[in-house]
Design a protein that fits this description.
Number of strands: 2
Radius of gyration: 27 Å
Number of helices: 11
Helix content: over 70%
Strand content: under 5%
Strand order of the largest sheet: 1-2
Largest sheet: 2 strands, antiparallel
Order of helices and strands: HEEHHHHHHHHHH
Length: 354
Amino acid sequence: MILSLAAAAAISSGSSNSFNSSFLLDSFDSSTSWSEDPSNSSSEPVVRTLTPDLQPATTAVAVQEVSPWDIALCVTGTLISCENALVIAVLFYTPALRAPMFILIGSLAVADLLAGLGLILNFIFTYLINNSMEFVTLLSVGLLISAFSASVLNILAITVDRYLSLYNALTYHTERTVTFTYMMVIFIWVLCLTLGLLPVLGWNCLKDESKCSICRPVTKNNAVALAVTFLLIFALMMQLYLQICKIAFRHAQQIAVQHQFLAISTTKGVSTLSAILCAFGVCWLPFAMYSIVADSTYPVIYTYATVLPATCCSVINPVIYAFRNPDIQKSLWMACCGCVPSSLFLRPRTSSDV
């Protein structure tokens, strides 16, 4: 739910660029002088010419330096969009992938796709469109807030789904579970769209820059509230994954007693879950903590340095939650090559697939 992210860096950068451009224009207008030819003393119209030394200022107005951080965010957004568009296409054109797990994976892919498009549009608004317009700023920030909030909440929903699939294994594949999943997805998107509309509805700092957070135009208080909410979500995910590990070990012990062998795959599954949780924390925790302690007066380079890892979470999400899934792998092989490797059919399901 920490969402307010990428908006911050590029938007604040874009606003400063717009300010610089307007400053150059004002300087040009105020310092432009007109010279008259003193030798012309007749009644004919006086010939007026621009002072030659002011011409370089025109060139300065036309040139706008592109931040390498914004380029990195735009490239990241492009990669995010391509990956998640592929996931959405596979889920859409494969009727067999309609289980609750795939519904949540599809919702996550849509959220990450919108996040990637938001990063690309943010770059366009900053350097190709007049970003000084309030509507453009609020539109870009609102899209990024909604998309990244939905991404984080969908990851939480997938974690809840994994826990329920183990805790209620006998009743998991029921119509009630499908209905619950759809209701959860609808709730996530309504909540995230509402969060994205808050800056447009007046919850912004455009009229009072002193109240801005690192995520302009999100206010400092709102950014802190969102960051704290993310930390609570992360703590809940840690608790759920801990319970998943306990259930997996208990099942492994029961299997070991019945078949008198140690289920080594459970250890692999726990390692995989730990890696997933660590990757999520490494991507998002720096930005969440920085949003709490920093404000708009801090150097923008620190904002970029925490935003970029957060956006990279949407790059690895398709790899973790979609491309590792055997069913999605089969669909990808069929779409690309028209065949499925025998190794996918022979591969047994393990707890590492959870």
